[in-house]
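RECORD CONTENTS
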Amino acid sequence: MKRDIQKEHAQSCDMLHHHDELVERVVHEMPPEEDLYDLADFFKVFADTTRIKILYVLLKQEMCVCDIAQTLEMTQSAISHQLRILKQMDLVKNRRDGKIIYYSLADNHIVSILSQGMDHINE
């Protein structure tokens, strides 16, 4: 109980004062509200384990839906659904080779995000 009170106390100011210059600078540097919503939506995509698995597969190798499904022991339908979401968020891209569509990560930013996320949880 004492620890909860300490945590609660640590999250509030004892004195009512403002650091006006600091607040003004940070407010001025904040991205537009729409950009923050887009960023939140971007990170929501990473909140699904299946999508993370697909991204890690594609981190290692470009693959078609059939191969991704076999690798993850899932149905092609489930993989296709998640790939559609990943493609809409510009996390994956595809290319056609005859009748086969191959998927890969959209760019190196995705590699960095996955790598940094894994580094963070393994610290």
The beta strands are 63-64, 92-97, 100-105. The chain is about 65% helix and 10% strand. The domain at 34-121 is CATH 1.10.10.10 (Arc Repressor Mutant, subunit A). The chain has one domain: 34-121.
